Automatic annotation (TrEMBL):
Positions of the record's site feature: May be important for catalysis: C292
UniProt-listed GO biological process terms: fucose metabolic process; glycoside catabolic process
Gene3D superfamilies for this protein: Glycosidases, Golgi alpha-mannosidase II
Gene Ontology MF annotations: alpha-L-fucosidase activity
Name of the protein in its database record: alpha-L-fucosidase
E.C. number(s) listed in UniProt: 3.2.1.51
Species for this entry: Chitinophaga lutea
A cellular component annotation (GO) from this entry: lysosome
A Pfam cross-reference name: Alpha_L_fucos
Residue ranges annotated for the Glycoside hydrolase family 29 N-terminal domain, each copy included: 19-362
Family recorded in the similarity comment: Belongs to the glycosyl hydrolase 29 family.
SMART domains listed in its UniProt record: Alpha_L_fucos
Alphabetical keyword list: Glycosidase, Hydrolase, Signal
Length: 489
C-alpha cells in the first residue's frame, strides 16, 4: 500500500504529456488544428515538374501537365473551348504518331537543374513554403520510388530515368537550408497505371499508393502533404482516414505536418486539413484555406502561352492581398522546363513579389482577417469574371480598372492583434478615409516603408489620414500600399 501511494504521489508530480490520439473518423481527424505555421505563412510556391515538362504544350487555357491524358484519350477541356484533338494533332505533327508519351521520359534529363539556385529564388520571393509535384497523374516519380518503375515495367522515376538523380531529394535538402518549408504534391490516382486502369483498386492502394506515401513521409519528412486526383474514388477506397491517422499519430512529422482537403470524392471543402480552391476569385471560409493557380492558365510549363496569358505582378499582388484579407493563403505555381530551368518571366514575377513583401510583409505574414475584409467604393458590387478558370487579371477589374457603374475594392484589411493594416491598390494623396476604424488614445498611423508617422483625425465614418505628396524616391514600393494603424479599439 505504501508503494502504491508513493507511485501515485510520483505520478502527480510528473508533467502531463499525453497527446491526442486521432481516430480514423472525420470527426476526430477534423479536430486536429491546422498547424499555426501554415496559417501564418500566407504565400507559397507550387511547382509542377515532370515528364510533361518536355513537350510542355497545350492549347491556351488548358493544363499542359495533362498532356498524356489529352494525347491518349483524344479529349481536351479547359478555357476557350479547345478542339478535342488539339493535342493529338500537335503531337502527331511534331513527334509523329508512333512516338509514345513514355518516350518523353528519355528526354527528361534536368541537366540544367540547380536546386540551390531554386531555393534561393524561393526565399527571395518571400514565399514561406513550397509544394513540389512528387508524382502527377502520369505516375512518374521525382524520387527513387521502386513502386513507380515496377508498376510501368520501365524506368519511371527520376533516378532510374534519364535524369539519374533524386530531383525531389536534392530540392528538399536545398530548401531545408533556408527558412522556407518543404511540401509535396501527390496524385492519389494515375491515369494509366496497369493496376488502376484494370480497376484492381485494392492492390493499387495497398501495393502502390500507400507505400509511396509512407516512403515520402519517412524518407523526407515534409511539412505539407498535398494530395490531388482524389475525385475519382471515395476516401474509403483510398484509405485516406487510415493514412491520416498514422500521419497524425505515429509518423515522424505528426506534430508539424499540414494537409489539404483532397482525400476522396466529395471530401474537398468538407473535411481534411485546410480547404483548397483552384483558379477562383472571391472565396472565403471559416477554416484556413488556400487558393492555387499558375501564373498563366497552366500549372505545368506551357510554351504555347504568350506574355498576355501571364498574370502581371500587379494583379498577383492584388490577388495575394485579397486572399489574405479573406483569411487564406496563395499557392502560386511555377512550371520549370524539362531541362530544369525556371522560365525567366516566372523568376521575374517571384522576385517582384518578393520586393513588395520586403516593404509590406508585416501586413501579410502572421495576420488574420479583420472585421471588414475590404472597403468598397460606391457602385454595384456584383461584377463577375468570365466563367471557367479565372485569370488573376480579374483583380484589376475589382480594384483599379472597374467597369462603369461597378464598385472597386479601395482597401484590403488584415489584422494582427489590435493592429490593423489597410492595403490600398492606389497610393492616395491628401485626405484618405479608412472606414470603421476606432482609434484609441495611443493610436498611430504609418505608411509601411515611409519612416515617419502620418497625421490623422477621428471622423464619424472611421479615421481620415493625411497622406503627404511623395517624390518618386520617397514612394516605398509599387502596386499596393499598406497603412499600419496601431492600438485600435
Amino acid at each position: 500500500m505504501q508503494l502504491f501511494r508513493h507511485l501515485v504521489w510520483l505520478a502527480l508530480l510528473l508533467p502531463i504529456t499525453i497527446k491526442a490520439q486521432y481516430k480514423p473518423t472525420w470527426e476526430s481527424l477534423d479536430s486536429r488544428p491546422v498547424p499555426a505555421w501554415f496559417e501564418n505563412a500566407k504565400f507559397g510556391i507550387f511547382i509542377h515538374w515532370g515528364v510533361y515538362s518536355v513537350p510542355a504544350w497545350a492549347p491556351k487555357g488548358v493544363y499542359s501537365e495533362w498532356y498524356q491524358y489529352w494525347l491518349q484519350s483524344g479529349k481536351v477541356f479547359g478555357n476557350n473551348n479547345p478542339s478535342p484533338t488539339a493535342v493529338v494533332d500537335h503531337h502527331n505533327k511534331v513527334y509523329g504518331k508512333d512516338f509514345s508519351y513514355y518516350q518523353f521520359a528519355d528526354y527528361f534529363k534536368a541537366e540544367d537543374y540547380d536546386p540551390e539556385a531554386w531555393a534561393k529564388l524561393f526565399e527571395k520571393s518571400g514565399a514561406k513554403y513550397i509544394v513540389l509535384t512528387s508524382k502527377h497523374h502520369d505516375g512518374f516519380a521525382l524520387w527513387p520510388s521502386k513502386e513507380a518503375t515496377k508498376a510501368f515495367g520501365r524506368p519511371w522515376n527520376a533516378v532510374d530515368g534519364a535524369a539519374k538523380r533524386d530531383l525531389l531529394g536534392d530540392l528538399t535538402t536545398a530548401v531545408k537550408k533556408t527558412s522556407v518549408k518543404m511540401g509535396f504534391y501527390y496524385s492519389l490516382y494515375e491515369w494509366y497505371n496497369p493496376l488502376y486502369r484494370d480497376k484492381k483498386y485494392k492492390e493499387y492502394v495497398n501495393e502502390h499508393m500507400l507505400p509511396q506515401l509512407r516512403d515520402l513521409v519517412n524518407r523526407y519528412e515534409p511539412d505539407i502533404i498535398w494530395p490531388d486526383g482524389e475525385w475519382d474514388q471515395s476516401d474509403t477506397l483510398w484509405q485516406s482516414r487510415e493514412f491520416l491517422t498514422w500521419l497524425f499519430n505515429e509518423s515522424p512529422v505528426k506534430d508539424k505536418v499540414a494537409v489539404n482537403d483532397r482525400w476522396g470524392k466529395g471530401i474537398r471543402k468538407n473535411h481534411g486539413g485546410y480547404y483548397t480552391t483552384e483558379y477562383e476569385v472571391g472565396a472565403t471560409f471559416s477554416r484556413p484555406w488556400e487558393e492555387c493557380r499558375g501564373m498563366g492558365f497552366s500549372f505545368g510549363y506551357n510554351r504555347n502561352e504568350d506574355i498576355e496569358d501571364y498574370n502581371s505582378t500587379q494583379s498577383l499582388i492584388y490577388l495575394l492581398t485579397d486572399i489574405v484579407s479573406s483569411g487564406g493563403n496563395l499557392l502560386l505555381d511555377i512550371g520549370p522546363d524539362g531541362h530544369g530551368k525556371i522560365p525567366p518571366i516566372m523568376q521575374e514575377r517571384l522576385l517582384e513579389i518578393g520586393e513588395w513583401l520586403k516593404v509590406n510583409g508585416e501586413a501579410i505574414y502572421n495576420t488574420r482577417s479583420w472585421k471588414n475584409k475590404v472597403q468598397w467604393s460606391a457602385g454595384r458590387r456584383d461584377w463577375k469574371p468570365p466563367h471557367g478558370m479565372v485569370s488573376g487579371e480579374a483583380m484589376l477589374k475589382q480594384t483599379v480598372q472597374p467597369e462603369p457603374g461597378y464598385a472597386a475594392k479601395e482597401i484590403f484589411f488584415t489584422a494582427n492583434g489590435s493592429t490593423v493594416y489597410a492595403i490600398a491598390p492606389r497610393l492616395p494623396e491628401g485626405r484618405f478615409l479608412i472606414r470603421d476604424v476606432n482609434p484609441s488614445a495611443g493610436t498611430t498611423v504609418q505608411l509601411l516603408g515611409l519612416p515617419r508617422k502620418l497625421a490623422f483625425k477621428k471622423v464619424k465614418e472611421g479615421i481620415e489620414v493625411t497622406v503627404p505628396k511623395l517624390s518618386v524616391q520617397e514612394v516605398p514600393c509599387r502596386h499596393a500600399f499598406a497603412f499600419k494603424i496601431t492600438q485600435t479599439i
